[in-house]
Specification:
alpha+beta; Outer membrane lipoprotein wza fold like; wza like fold; five-stranded mixed beta sheet; 18 strands; about 20% helix; rod-shaped
């Protein structure tokens, strides 16, 4: 049963990513804005000065955001775009050293801005930003989800610079902005498109979570493991398992739930009372085990 579920998840996520990439190509999901890349410490710049090649070469932006350039010394360039750096070098060289200098600057190696992508993607790791990037760009670059992905993506950021992120406090430590987005078939296409258009910023930690399961055994028609999703309850779980057999006892249902200390809680459930509205339906958690007992004749 679990292999079948994972196969279905893999198929669905592949279709979802494919359709959304196609939608983006059609203009439905815009790529991240084409704002210029801002240079920072660690980036490697290639500078060419025509008619004076000895001044050119490869230069690494220092930790204080300066570029150590011949004749000029340390030039502050942190957070400047390539065109701005080019104009600055021309201005400084023209002021005291050269007549009408022709300078070309390009980023040879992008090293100052990156995001960390972990979890259920084909190629997790550190991804350097070469300009604005959204969630779809990042997931596509990483090869998409694995077959174990749940479709839930968590974006963690140390500063709240996106109004769609909310703040959480952790025992007085530095605040972290966190957002959970869901790229699952149960979500509307509009919601999925909005999630995939979220801008990814330098320093973000992006986690593609694994699918979590519950287990059901005993007097149901299709016992086995099933993925847990938001809003899942014991009645819905029984329905997912094909319903009760003719031998099942609605009053002999138990949920086994692991505690954080390693122990197990046994939660007794009467499906009949839930159906009659006498008791509320019981929400399920990941790794819950549902046991459905047999009637005594």
């Amino acid at each position: 049963m679990q292999n079948g579920v994972l196969s279905t998840i893999a198929t669905v996520t592949a279709l979802l990513m494919g359709s959304l990439v196609a939608a983006q190509d059609n203009g439905d999901i815009p790529h991240a804005s084409k704002a210029p890349y801002r240079v920072g410490p660690g980036d490697v710049l290639e500078v060419k000065v025509y008619d004076d090649p000895d001044l050119g070469g490869l230069f690494t932006v220092q930790y204080d955001g300066t570029l150590s350039f011949p004749l000029l010394g340390d030039v502050p360039i942190d957070k400047l775009a390539v065109r701005e750096i080019q104009a600055k070098l021309v201005e400084l060289l023209e002021k005291d050293f050269l007549v009408d200098p022709q300078v070309v600057v390009r980023v040879k190696e992008f090293r100052s801005q990156w995001v960390t992508l972990i979890g259920e993607v084909a190629r997790p790791g550190k991804y350097y930003l070469q300009g604005p990037k959204n969630l779809l760009d990042l997931l596509t670059e990483a090869g998409g989800f694995t077959s174990r992905a749940s479709g839930e993506v968590i974006i963690s950021r140390l500063t709240e610079d996106d109004p769609r992120l909310f703040m959480t406090e952790d025992n007085g430590r530095e605040s972290e902005a966190t957002m959970r987005v869901f790229l699952t078939p149960g979500r509307s296409v509009a919601d999925q498109k909005e999630a995939l258009s979220l801008a990814i910023h330098s320093g973000d930690i992006v986690t593609a979570t694994s699918t979590k399961f519950f287990y059901i055994s005993g007097e149901v028609k299709k016992p086995g493991s099933y993925p847990v999703h938001a809003g899942l309850t014991v009645l819905k779980a029984v329905s997912l398992a094909g319903g009760l057999t003719k031998f099942a006892s609605k009053g002999k249902v138990a949920i086994l739930r692991q505690r954080s200390d390693g122990g197990t809680d046994r939660i007794k459930v009467d499906l009949g009372d839930i159906e009659r509205g006498k008791n509320p339906d019981v929400p399920l958690e990941a790794e819950d085990i549902i046991k459905v007992g047999k009637r005594v004749f």
